[in-house]
Amino acid sequence: MITDTKLQKEAMRVLKQTSRTFYIPIKLLNPTLRLAVGSAYLCMRAIDEIEDHEQLDVPVKQQLLEATGKLLETGFDNDVYHQLLLPYKDLLPEVTLRLNDWLAVCPADYIDKVKESTSIMAVGMSKWVGKAFAVETKEDLDDYTYYVAGLVGVMLSDIWKQYDGTETDQELAIGYGRGLQAVNILRNQEEDSERGVGFFPNGWTRADMFAYAEANLQMADEYIESISTKNILLFCKIPLALAKRTLSALQSGADKMKRDEVVSTVDEILKEYEA
After folding, report:
1. Residue 25 pLDDT more than 60?
2. Which of 9, 15, 200, 201 has the fewest CB atoms within 10 Å, counting from its CB?
3. DSSP 42-100
4. What is the CATH number of the domain that holds 251?
5. Strand ranges, E, within 42-182
6. What is the C-alpha separation between 89 and 66, in angstroms, rounded?
């Protein structure tokens, strides 16, 4: 049997492998929040890998996402989950196969929120897989970005409140998530197009998506104004700063931020935090 300490180390290893953006801020959280938010990220990444998988057919993706969502609603039976994934275990990554382990590292006080949010996300992702990610209107874009990112903001706000009573606005939390996702959409537009997917509403130009991203990142700025706990504030500021810098790089014609720009951005925030 894997010890709690070993499992926590493995969770951080997989987190580092799967996310350049969130590994650093999660690592900087205090132990309780680090485990809660790290667990949540890994659980959501587990289902995201199903949603994005290039070798799984649409009906299979929908089946896996909907069934996983139901399992998360009912206590999560790992034996059932294992049987569900068994026909596809050679195709799916470690982060997906080990969903039960990521739930196991989550502190007991936060596990229900993590499971609930991941379940809602899985069902929402299944819906959009079935629609072939056909974003036609701004309302569609808002709906898609809610399920894959805005929902994360809501969950984090609930975790902050449970942790130390930090109160944040839910709509601003959704805007925070949407802003980060809109930057990803802009950054990955060409790659998405090559695989036959587009997240721009009908008639939208790249300038329209930049405006959408900027409006939501402004909500993100308002969101963090209500946070006074330094530990939480640091976590929120790093992905937001990286998203803003990435947006600026994209507007200037670059594909993404350079590695040294990422490092300097994080260092600037850390120095501000230490001051």
Report:
1. yes
2. 9
3. HHHHHHHHHHT-SSS-HHHHHHHHHHHHHHHHTT--HHHHHHHHGGGTTTS-HHHHTHH
4. 1.10.600.10
5. none
6. 17
Question: 168 is written with which tokens?
Answer: 């944040």
Same domain, 74 and 184: no
Q: Kindly state whether residues 90 and 162 are assigned to the same domain.
A: no
Tally the domains of the chain: 2
Q: Is residue 31 part of a domain?
A: yes
pLDDT of residue 275: 56
- Which residue range(s) make up the domain with 261? 131-270
The torsion region of residue 203 among left (phi > 0), alpha (psi -120 to 50) and beta comes to: left
pLDDT at 193: 86
User: 159 and 115 in contact (C-beta within 8 Å)?
Assistant: no
Nearest to 247 by CA among 197, 202, 171, 181: 181
In the predicted model, what is the mean pLDDT of residues 125-134?
96
202-235 pLDDT, tens digit per residue, is 999 999 999 999 999 999 999 999 999 999 999 9
- In contact, 228 and 161? CB cutoff 8 Å: no
Report yes or no: 188 and 257 within 8 Å, Cβ to Cβ. no
Whether 210 maps to a domain, the answer reads yes
Write out the two tokens for 257.
């931020």
Decide if 88 contacts 64 (C-beta within 8 A).
Answer: yes
Beta strands in 55-132 (DSSP E): none
Nearest to 103 by CA among 138, 78, 123, 80: 78
In a domain, 10, yes or no: yes
What's at 78, amino acid-wise? Answer: N
Per-residue model confidence (pLDDT) at position 1 = 45
Q: Which of 20-29, 110-119, 237-246, 261-270 has the lowest mean pLDDT?
A: 261-270
